[in-house]
Model the fold of this input.
Amino acid sequence: MATYTDIEKFSDKLNEKYPLFKEKALKHRRFKHKDIVPLIEKAAQTSVFEFKKLGESTEGRSINLLKAGSGKTVVLLWSQMHGDEPTATQALFDIFNFFNDTEYFKAEKEQILSNLSLYFIPMLNPDGAEAFKRRNGLNIDLNRDAARLVSKESKIFKQLRDEILPDFGFNLHDQNPYYTVGKSSKPATVSFLAPAYNPEKDIDENRKGSMQAIALMNRVLQKHIPGQVGRYFDAYGPTSMGDNMQKWGTKMMLIESGEYPGDPERQEVRKLNFIAILSALKAMAQGVCAEIDYGEYLQIPEINDAKLFHLLVRNASIEQNGQKYTVDIGIHLNEVNNVGATDFSVQSEIFDIGDLSRFYGYKEIDAKGMLVKSLNSEQIILNLGDSADFILTEKGQRLIEIKNGQIS
Done:
């Protein structure tokens, strides 16, 4: 009989062999529809996958489906419902390479594909991806369009859902980098949610199934990012796609990819998606998920909103009208798209000033005894929204220079 130990061993091997499956054509987060179409075509040329064009987006870009497996349990996985949330899209192409590989994990792949029917939609919102923005070509949030189905993309998705009636669903997203796990200082590198199907947030057998699958993935990821897995905000959304999918009978798992320290392109989190999703698929194929106590899901700490800064300067002195004040300075680093949204520059922002003792930073400076001055050593007034450009001095000596939010 299969046990969680089997899944754990599998996930360890996935981590070890991951470089063999990582899709090398996708290295940065701002790839476009034109970049993935050849990769979809390449995957579909093998005997593993069947290809189908589901339709076209608002602006006329194809929305494509890859199907693998012939099992009775139906699993639907979709990514980039929000155009600027591409981490899991990359992971899906790594997963396609995993299934198309002929050398490794032969028994595991046979087991998954004989017990599951897998349906993948990589990049549901290609128009949003083109501009690297959340919403689609109509400026509609597809994840809030499950009731009216205004957008072509939402209609295409709902039609597929009604045709295949998935038992499990993976709703793959990115989240902002400022969430922490519970009351800790650790970033929520990955967050999960078993969406509610009603305002009361009841837990029926279907939602229990979602929780069991998430509990299993949490176990897997704790080996790689201990303490950095959180439970996403549990609030029922009557127009949200995941919540409605749960109501329609699919065991839903929301996966939110956050930030891993020092990895702005989220390549480490991409790998974590690869490991977690494949581990869950193997567990579903073996019936292991059903053996997990759904209460483990409820023990995952809920994430905290906006408790992190990219840089937190603690205990700095500022001077105004002849008076000195001790403050903390919280700094965000914002991505600004270039023309065409193929790359980005970083623009710092002084996001908060005051007592930030209950907040944390990816990087922190204890500036006790240091005075904040402008880069030319003159007195400075800090304003929210300004770029973080200043020096920290002590007795007139320049100690630390911060340019555009970076310690230089």
